[in-house]
Amino acid sequence: MHPPPKAGKVGCMTTSPLTDVIAFAPSAKAGTVLIRRGQTLSHALHLMTGRVTLGLVDRGHLTHQLGVVEGPFWLEAASSLLGLSPVMDAVSETSVQLQWVLLSAFHASVQTVSEPAKSLLTDLASAQRQQSELAVSRLAKDADARCAEWLLRHAEPADKLGAMVVTLNQRKRLIAAQLGIAPETFSRVLRHLRSLNLISGSGRVLTLPDPQGLRALAEA
């Protein structure tokens, strides 16, 4: 999503430390890609209201979910502060109200704080950036392998013959969030594992007919 063509003055806002800076304040509907990883930033983006999912988008769809934030919140503030490209995508989960702040104004505002505060902000931004890069790098392990690993970790004996079952005590959306993938991806992976005869059953109880096969997939 690109900032709209018109700008205006933004007065003092209790949800934002920036005052009297040139900014855009548009709205966006659910499902809008607000930030794309790797893009060159020209603005700092402040989420005023609404909810945004952070993760990786592939071919227009969110395939990996790394977090959810609600406004007021600065999106990719670390990248904006450090002058780096974002490491993950940001997609609006609900309708949102946004404030696009010129990067030069964002940096100028940071320069007004004391030197110790600036040093602290820079250190926090660097640490957050490293955590984001680490989270993205972990996604190198594909969704099938992570799902197989999760199933094995939550498996329980079903009988004395060694059969294993997994009871889904949480909604699939919450399990998908733990795995760092979108709910649609989690459903797709379960269908794939069924086609490989690695899981069976429906509803909230899944049977693991081939734990060794699942283990091989998890370690791939």
Tell me what you see in this structure.
The protein is of the alpha+beta class. It folds into two domains: 8-138, Jelly Rolls (Sandwich); 143-218, Arc Repressor Mutant, subunit A. 35% of the residues lie in helices and 28% in strands. The strands form three sheets. Strands 1, 2, 3, 5, 8 and 10 form a six-stranded antiparallel β-sheet that branches. Strands 4-9-6-7 form a four-stranded antiparallel β-sheet. Strand 11 (156-157) and strand 12 (164-167) form a beta hairpin. Helix 4 (143-153) crosses helix 6 and helix 4 (143-153) packs across helix 7. The protein starts with 7 loop residues before the first strand and ends with a helix. Residues 5-17 have low confidence and may be disordered.
Walk me through the topology.
Layout: E1 8-10, E2 21-24, E3 27-28, E4 33-35, E5 43-49, E6 51-58, E7 61-70, E8 73-75, H1 77-82, E9 89-92, E10 96-102, H2 103-110, H3 115-138, H4 143-153, E11 156-157, E12 164-167, H5 172-179, H6 183-195, E13 205-208, H7 211-218
Antiparallel strand pairs: 1-2, 2-10, 3-10, 4-9, 5-8, 5-10, 6-7, 6-9, 11-12, 12-13
Helix pairs in contact: 4-6, 4-7, 5-6
